[in-house]
Amino acid sequence: MKYIYGNWKENNTLRDVNLFISEFKKQKMPNDVCFGLAVPYLYLQKMNKKLQKKCEIGVQNVSFSEKGEFTGEISAKMLCDFNCSFSLVGHSERRQKFKETNEEINQKMLRCFDFGIMPILCVGETKEEKDENKTKKVLKMQLTKCLKDIPTSKKFMVAYEPVWAIGTGVTPSPKDVEENVSYIKKVLSENIKVSGICVLYGGSVNPQNAKELLNGKSVDGALVGGASLNAKKFVDIGKNLQNIRR
Ligand code: PEP
Question: Which of 14, 127, 156, 234 has an alpha carbon 20 to 30 Å from 190's alpha carbon atom?
Answer without folding.
Answer: 127
